[in-house]
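FAQ

Q: What does a record look like?
A: Structure on top, sequence underneath. For example:
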């Protein structure tokens, strides 16, 4: 059995390896003593995220934030960045979506068995929450890069017999329950997580707080001997993902004091609670030396929301190999050796003939067509212009925008057939998100016989792979400035799928009109009232569809394929997590 040195990435043969170590219930092999010692004693980057998307079968993510965290782990392992990740086990997942024919979402638990996927670590920790001692165990999933090293991922779990029934459920539901439940989760993740790493003997050089849910770890660090605010700051990196003030959750003072008094001395806690309570984001801002937003536009919004902090921008990406379909992987391997590890090489995509690009895309499209037939019993036309839209169903994503004027949509469809593939789950408590899914279904029914449209149930990472590679155009219509980044359009670009998007988040940086895709509505600087904005968005949506996108797709095939190639050469080469992690490594981690 071949093994790999987790530190330097060299292949090693366990039968003959001179160096090995047993830690955390596993045996690891090394090519040198130095690698072994680095593995055991070296400082790690501890990446904390409330959600992590490793794979569809481990349903501990709700959307882009978790999938990004998974891509951070995948790229870090590829690049031999010494990282360890911490999250919650979310035994009942986020939500498994069932849809009635009318588009009513039925919320089912998405229970999974950590024991079937990971190994339990023997060392446990305890945190005091209110007047209870809550025991925490960790499940370990070792993420091995096929080309590089290892990132261990710890899933914290309070479902232990010694805990009170209520506390056993703290790590059940991602973003579930009430505010008190979410604060308990933040305590387990932040304080329990930092403590768990110490209990495992893992030395941490930097703590990367991916969105503020884990920011209580800063207070845990402050309590350690020899620490003060300035020293904690040098150890902490905070990436904010939220663009609007109302989205920063503030926990009421009484609740914070009641739940945290046993862990954080009141005097210390008092320093960080404002009159209206404790905002985890404010804590992360104040106690992190390196703070960043996830696109340039998002950096600018964050600077306005949090004046006085030095906020930078590290634009998000996606993991190149994971989000490239099999047929495009083969194609890139053939023409652009090394692309997955050096995605910058994708600028050379012009060397791939149009025929090959079209062929690879048609195969990815066929896979989606097959899936739709199997799941929804609908026969899509492999030749027809196919538009995809899939993401969390929530108000600002505006899944229904394209259905604002059905007559215009029908009219566009008469120029050349269009078909629509939708997917996306609503949070169980998000009534507006659920209403949107219903409205999409209503519109689809109204369009029957003229525009073929399907809604695929239970959006997952696997389905995201299939859709972002298998459609022709990837539609995105968020209400600015709510889309801090967005990442699914980057997945599309890796597969030569063309973006048609509102100018928000990453698209402001990726958009070259008519070259990498098309914009919907005014640019970010344009002062426009809400009504004006909407009018211009609808104008662009329908007229670009009818007069640019459809004619190009059907009648100027070479021009269309050139746009597909530009999408790869001018988007995918840059909007990937390899570039992103190299930036975090050199600017924030070193
Ligand atoms: C990539 C991904 C997302 C992010 O989609 P956006 O359009 O960027 O919001 C959400 N859910 C899943 C399952 C994904 O794979």
């Amino acid at each position: 059995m071949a093994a790999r040195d987790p530190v330097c990435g060299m292949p090693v043969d366990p039968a003959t390896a001179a160096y090995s170590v047993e830690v955390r219930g596993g045996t690891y092999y090394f090519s040198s003593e130095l690698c072994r010692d680095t593995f055991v004693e070296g400082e790690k980057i501890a990446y904390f995220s409330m959600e992590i998307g490793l794979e569809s079968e481990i349903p501990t993510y709700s959307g882009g934030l978790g999938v990004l965290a998974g891509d951070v782990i995948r790229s870090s392992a590829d690049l031999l960045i010494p990282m360890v990740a911490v999250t919650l086990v979310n035994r009942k997942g986020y939500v498994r979506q069932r849809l009635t024919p009318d588009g009513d979402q039925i919320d089912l638990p998405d229970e999974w068995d950590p024991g079937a996927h990971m190994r339990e670590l023997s060392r446990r920790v305890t945190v005091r929450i209110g007047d209870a001692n809550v025991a925490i165990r960790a499940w370990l999933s070792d993420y091995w890069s096929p080309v590089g090293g290892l990132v261990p991922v710890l899933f914290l779990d309070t479902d232990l017999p010694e805990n009170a029934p209520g506390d056993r459920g703290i790590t059940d539901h991602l973003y579930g329950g009430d505010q008190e439940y979410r604060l308990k989760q933040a305590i387990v993740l932040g304080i329990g997580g930092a403590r768990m790493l110490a209990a495992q003997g893992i030395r941490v050089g930097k703590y990367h707080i991916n969105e503020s849910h884990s920011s209580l770890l800063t207070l845990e660090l402050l309590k350690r001997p020899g620490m003060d605010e300035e020293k904690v700051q040098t150890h902490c990196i905070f990436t904010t993902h939220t663009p609007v003030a109302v989205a920063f959750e503030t926990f009421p003072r009484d609740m914070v004091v009641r739940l945290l008094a046993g862990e954080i001395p009141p005097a210390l806690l008092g320093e960080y609670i404002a009159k209206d309570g404790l905002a985890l984001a404010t804590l992360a801002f104040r106690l992190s030396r390196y703070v960043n937003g996830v696109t340039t536009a998002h950096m600018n919004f964050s600077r306005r929301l949090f004046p006085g902090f030095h906020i930078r921008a590290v634009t998000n990406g996606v993991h190149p190999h994971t989000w490239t379909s099999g047929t495009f992987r083969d194609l890139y391997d053939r023409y652009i050796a090394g692309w997955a590890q050096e995605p910058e090489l994708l600028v050379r995509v012009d060397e791939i003939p149009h025929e090959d690009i079209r062929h690879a895309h048609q195969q990815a499209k066929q896979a989606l067509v097959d899936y739709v037939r199997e799941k929804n019993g609908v026969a899509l036309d492999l030749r027809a212009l196919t538009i995809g839209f899939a993401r969390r169903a929530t108000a600002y994503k505006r899944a229904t925008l394209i259905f604002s004027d059905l007559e215009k949509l029908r009219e566009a469809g008469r120029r050349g057939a269009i078909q629509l593939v939708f997917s996306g789950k609503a949070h169980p408590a998000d009534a507006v998100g659920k209403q949107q899914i219903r409205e999409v279904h209503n519109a689809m029914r109204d369009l029957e016989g003229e525009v073929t449209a399907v809604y695929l149930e239970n959006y997952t990472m696997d389905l995201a792979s299939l859709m972002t590679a298998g459609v022709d155009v990837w539609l995105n219509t968020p209400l600015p400035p709510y889309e801090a980044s967005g990442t699914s359009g980057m997945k599309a670009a890796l597969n030569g799928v063309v973006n048609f998007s509102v100018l928000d988040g990453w698209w402001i940086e990726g958009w070259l009109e008519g070259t990498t895709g098309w914009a919907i509505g005014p640019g970010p600087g344009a002062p426009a009232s809400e009504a004006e904005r909407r009018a211009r968005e609808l104008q662009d949506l329908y007229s670009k569809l009818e007069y640019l996108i459809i004619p190009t797709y059907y009648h100027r095939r070479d021009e269309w394929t050139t746009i597909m190639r530009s999408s790869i050469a001018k988007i995918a080469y840059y909007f990937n997590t390899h570039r992103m992690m190299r930036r975090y490594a050199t600017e924030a981690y070193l």
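Q: Is there anything notable about this one?
A: The pocket of pyridoxal-5'-phosphate is lined by residues 63-64, 67, 391, 459-461, 464, 486-488, 491 (CB under 6 Å).
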